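SAMPLE LOG
Freezer: B-3
Tube label: C17
Construct: single chain, 243 aa
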Amino acid sequence: MRRWTVLCICILALLAMPLAVTAALVGDENVTATPDNETGQMDNMTIAGYIAQDENLTRLAEALNVTGLYDALNTGGPYTVFAPSDDAFNALGNETVNQLFNETANLTTVLQYHVVEGKYTSANLTAMAENQTGNQTGNQTGENILGIIGGLLGGGNQTGNQTGNMTTLKTLSGESLNVTVSDGKIMVENANVTMKDINATNGVIHIIDKVLVPPGMNLTVAENQTGVMANETTEVMTTETTM
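STRUCTURE (predicted):
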């Protein structure tokens, strides 16, 4: 009798083992099926690292390597980078881009003009622009009254020339950038932000559709290309011959 009892216990134990193994495997699958981090994938990459792997920022990545600014955007920060897309560089024309890439000092200045110390998300920029505009409106109430009187007396036209809300950021080149927010759209000088809030470990990237040119710097404009000069007045007309 005892032998039969022991035998039954052994049989039950053998039958239970596959069930236990299956449960363990199912449990492991449930644990590993969920990725470690489903959101904010760029949180594990630096600004330079993201630019280096983005197929739409190959020109910018090359420029960072040429000027040696890759290391700064890979280890320093936090920074806010307004990153021109490949289309933005292509709009300058190949001759202009090639010339710029051969002039390392100018290229460095141009790149620094796209970088601001500190991390400014689109929400930060919007709040700053609204706050600055609100302060300006409050401070200019008395000035508007004087402006109206001046207009009646034949003074110049002083109607506002700003649209939307605007704030100013100082760049690594020492120059300032005007950031305008209107109807949810963000513009940096005359460039549109086409993709915003790419978060990195050392800051944030906003992709723009134009290459920003620091005030006072002239770039050679390829034929049929316009709007890439920092100053509207160029010296192109000086090539006219004098009789």
